Amino acid sequence: MVYSESEMPAIQVKILIAGGFGVGKTTFVGSTSEIEPLNTEELITAASMGIDNLSKTADKSTTTVAFDFGRLTIPQHNIVLYLFGTPGQERFWFMWDELSAGALGAIVLADTRRLQESFAAIDFFESRGIRFLVAVNVFDDAFAYEPDEVRAALELDSHVPIVLCDARDRRSAMSVLRGLIQYLLAAASAYSA
Predict the structure, then answer these.
(1) Number of domains composing the chain
(2) Which InterPro entries does the record match to this protein (predicted)?
(3) Helix, strand, or coil here: 162?
(4) Angle between helix 170-192 and 25-32 (nearest 10)
(5) What pLDDT was estimated at residue 61?
């Protein structure tokens, strides 16, 4: 069967949004999704006392317990991005294996007030060969570091892109997604050459 360009099925791409607890994954998925995002947010209860570090997220009252889901269509390239936000707390990391199946790439959201919480996501994607970029979510009360300073602190290879973003701002979050797609395309092109 021969398809005309307008009849070609869309290319479906699975993207993970990962990072530590409270770095903005749910916000990122919500700000970029063209549909009402699916959230598995639950109230933070006394059971998380001593387990979750709320010191930098004092206003946070809910947490993702399974995943967030959103969708974004890029009609000019006939691509549909399926966005899966991972849970941030260690006790829910077992979900990452399931969520990563079939993922083409990932975004590791980082908070410079607690960069150490980024290592688990970085290690996860590196160990599975899933390409990722690091998006530093710029919080109002966080010190502004240059991308090279973040790269050194996270001990990232030079090929891993680092960008600054505001997960609340759709344009900023969309720029991160564009950066990831460009990185994935460049890596695929280099691999095939």
Answers:
(1) 1
(2) Gliding_Motility_GTPase, Gpn, P-loop_NTPase
(3) strand
(4) 90
(5) 53
106: number of Cβ within 10 Å: 27
Domain extent at residue 160: 11-39+65-191
Other CB atoms within 10 A of residue 190 CB: 9
Q: What is the DSSP letter of 10?
A: P
Which tens digit of pLDDT belongs to each residue from 24-83?
A: 999 999 999 998 887 766 555 565 555 555 555 556 555 554 578 999 998 888 889 999
CB atoms within 10 A of CB 42: 11
For residue 174, give the nearest of 35, 74, 64 by alpha carbon.
74
Tens of pLDDT, residue by residue over 90-111, are: 666 777 888 889 999 999 999 9
Give the closest residue to 108 by CA, choosing from 97, 119, 94: 119
Of 117 and 45, the structure prediction assigns the larger pLDDT to 117
Q: How far apart are CA 63 and CA 44, in angstroms?
A: 6
Structure tokens at 149: 């300073």
Phi-psi label, residue 50: left if phi above 0, alpha if psi -120 to 50, beta otherwise: left
Closest to 82 (Cα-Cα) out of 55, 103, 113, 56: 103
